[in-house]
Design a protein that fits this description.
- InterPro entries: Bact_response_regulator, CheY-like_superfamily, Sig_transdc_resp-reg_receiver.
- Pfam families: Response_reg (PF00072).
- Keywords: Phosphoprotein.
- This is Response regulatory domain-containing protein.
- The protein is of the alpha/beta class.
- The protein has a single domain (about 10-125), classed as Response regulator (Rossmann fold).
- Helix content is about 45%, strand content about 25%.
- It is built from 5 helices and 7 strands; from the N terminus they run E-H-E-H-E-E-E-H-E-H-E-H.
- The protein has helices at about 15-30, 40-50, 65-75, 95-100, 115-125; strands spanning about 10-15, 35, 55-60, 60, 65, 85-90, 105-110.
- The strands form 2 sheets. A 5-stranded parallel β-sheet has the order 2-1-3-6-7, sandwiched between helices. Strands 4-5 form a two-stranded antiparallel sheet.
- Strand 1 (about 10-15), helix 1 (about 15-30) and strand 2 (about 35) form a beta-alpha-beta unit.
- The longest helix is centred in the last third of the chain and has 14 residues, at about 115-125.
- It is globular.
Length: about 130
């Protein structure tokens, strides 16, 4: 999906700007490019303009729930191939199940280790 195949693009969707920017920097150390969206509206725009290969999606956003965006991404033929990793501060089996049913490729519980992020990015890239 990304125009620059050598450097797959990751979109980080999280309303905590500091955390999102640090996460974007970590992602770049893994050989990806990254951008940040702080809400659903900006994420929707970024999906069309940046064409990410992977989206790291927080669930609790100021303008809605990340599950809505996950559902939209997987339902749209233009973005259905984007790999979505759901981020949450809570380990909730019901939420994890819902995310997987909607098409998430992985679920990361915050805070997570750099190694966990690296593994998830590798898995998501292999699936795309």
């Amino acid at each position: 999906m990304n125009a620059t195949a050598e450097f797959p693009h990751v979109l980080v969707v999280d309303d905590n700007l500091d955390a999102a920017e640090v996460l974007a920097l970590l992602i770049e150390t893994e050989g990806f490019t990254a951008s940040v969206a702080r809400n659903l509206a900006t994420a929707r725009e970024a999906l069309q303009t940046h064409r990410p290969s992977i989206v790291l999606l927080d669930l609790n956003l100021p303008d809605g729930n990340g599950m809505a965006l996950l559902s939209e991404v997987k339902a749209d033929a233009r973005t259905a191939g984007v790999q979505v990793v759901v981020l949450s501060g809570m380990l909730d089996d019901k939420v994890m199940t819902q995310a997987r049913e909607l098409g998430a490729c992985a679920f990361l519980v915050k805070p997570f280790e750099h190694e966990q992020l690296s593994q998830v990015l590798s898995l998501a890239q292999a699936a795309s």
